[in-house]
Every structure is written in structure tokens, then in C-alpha cells.
Design brief:
By secondary structure, the chain is of the alpha+beta class. Helices cover 35% and strands 19% of the residues.
Length: 155
């Protein structure tokens, strides 16, 4: 996919929408310094080109009872397409797996697991995750606190 040409107005639009996805078109136009019609056209172009891939609410997982995050590095026994696809299909079924990244280096995947507590994490790890066929090893890391959070780099 060819990258769209992005100018300073587009960057301002993307940054404003990243910071407040519910901003009105009028407020957005005032923020970026263009009238509503060109802002609307630009937003539509940014959506159509995939720069803006969607809109969603930011959820505080702890408020929903999922106060523990664990990062899990996974090494598969084989790094062939079939094994990767089988692993990815298996973890897609686990609501506890919030993020999953295919990695370079000595591990194949990095996952973020969200659970109510360490007991639930242990039950998930022992009862379900460790039973996924093809996993050679897993290494868990428990974060102490988030130092920096971001949604997307815009500049």
C-alpha cells in the first residue's frame, strides 16, 4: 500500500483526533485552522487511506476488574507458517490475550495478558495457554507500573 501524502494540516487533524476521537467537526476545524468542509474531506481521505483506521473508547481495564497485566514471551518449537498460523488461531480464542505481536529475536511472540489477579493468570497459564500445541517455552514478566503510555506516534 502506498503511503498517502500527509501535510501539516493532516498531522494536526490526526493529532487532534488521537487526543479526542469525539471532537466535533466544527471544533476540529477550529483546532487545525481550516474550515469544516476541507477538514471533512481530509478526515475522509485519511480514513480511506488507512491512516485513521477506526475510532474507539479508551477502557480502564482495572475498572472492569482486570487489574493485572502480564507480558508473556513465547517461543514455538517450529517457526514455519503452519505452526505460526495454528498458534495465532489458538490465542485469538483467549479473551485474556489483549495484545499479541510476532517478534524478531530469540522469542517468536510477545503477548499482553489481562486478568483479574495472579490466581486467574495462573489458571489461564496452566489450564489453557500451556496446552496450546507447538509452544516450546514461555516467559512471564509482570510490570510494576506504566511509565509512558501512547496510542500512536503522530509526530
Amino acid at each position: 500500500m502506498k503511503s498517502p501524502k500527509i501535510d501539516e494540516f493532516d498531522r494536526r487533524i490526526v493529532k487532534a483526533l488521537r487526543d479526542n476521537g469525539r471532537i466535533s467537526l466544527q471544533e476540529l476545524s477550529e483546532t487545525v485552522g481550516l474550515s469544516p468542509t476541507p477538514v471533512s474531506r481530509r478526515v475522509r481521505r485519511l480514513e480511506d487511506s488507512g491512516v485513521i483506521s477506526g475510532y474507539s473508547a479508551l477502557i480502564d481495564e482495572a475498572s472492569l476488574g482486570f487489574g493485572v497485566s502480564v507480558f508473556v514471551s513465547i517461543k514455538l518449537d517450529r517457526q514455519v507458517d503452519e505452526a505460526l498460523a495454528r498458534f495465532e488461531a489458538a490465542i485469538a480464542e483467549f479473551p485474556e490475550v489483549v495484545d499479541c505481536w510476532l517478534m524478531t529475536g530469540n522469542r517468536d511472540y510477545l503477548l499482553r495478558i489481562a486478568t483479574e489477579g495472579l490466581r486467574e493468570y495462573e489458571e489461564f497459564l496452566v489450564g489453557r495457554m500451556s496446552r496450546v500445541r507447538g509452544i516450546a517455552s514461555m516467559e512471564s514478566s509482570i510490570p510494576l507500573r506504566r511509565v509512558k503510555a501512547g496510542f500512536a506516534r503522530t509526530e
